[in-house]
Amino acid sequence: LSEMLMVELTGFLGMDFVSQFDNMVLDYKEKTIEFNQMDFKPDYVIPLKNINPRLEIELSIVSNEKHIAGKCLVDTGAYQSVFSNNDIVISNDWNCASGFKFPTPNGEQTFNLYAGIEVSCEGIIDFGEQVMMLNQDISHTYDYVLGANILSQYKCCFNIKDNFEAMPRELKARSHTLVEYDDIWYEANYEFATSLVAWKLAEIRYTYG
Questions:
Q1: Prediction pTM value
Q2: 192 alpha carbon, distance to own chain's centre
Q3: Residue 181 neighbours by CB under 8 Å, 6+ apart
Q4: DSSP string, 10-25
Q5: What is the pLDDT of residues 160-196, one digit of tens each?
Q6: CA-angle at 83, arms to 23 and 30, nearest 5°
């Protein structure tokens, strides 16, 4: 993965780790990550639609003076923010720069970048005009990806605890690690309980053959 992304990696901090804390504060400028920062005072509060297995919000871009809202992945590891609807490009006169190469889990790929896209979030915050990349491969899951080119302009606090408590019970079940969940597995719906068992069996097979 380090070779494909062209970044030296020794591991990932996933939601199984992050969800143990009340919040996570990401400061791109200072290059720091802090947990359980109780004195954080936000200028804007964006509700998280989901925290498991990924952080999701609602994002919109302006196309022909209309806000096109959609499901957005908050990806702190993505170099560039992304949109997936090619039809929007046809109906707008955004400045385009083609042929940019970016590392992806599938290796280096070429994408087009579009400048001057107005980006906002649920009427809460206006990110202004931004550069976004067209990637239709994400369309089956997300409409947008909010990446580091926008996130790095802010000090971001992800309030895991409050959003976790507001989730349905079955989604809470998926947010627990296996160790934490062993004693309360019966609270989950059947499909989630069995998926945890399958996950555990897969882990055992991978570890011990």
A1: 0.71
A2: 22
A3: 173, 188, 196
A4: S----HHHHTTSS-EE
A5: 777 655 444 444 444 444 334 444 433 333 333 334 4
A6: 35
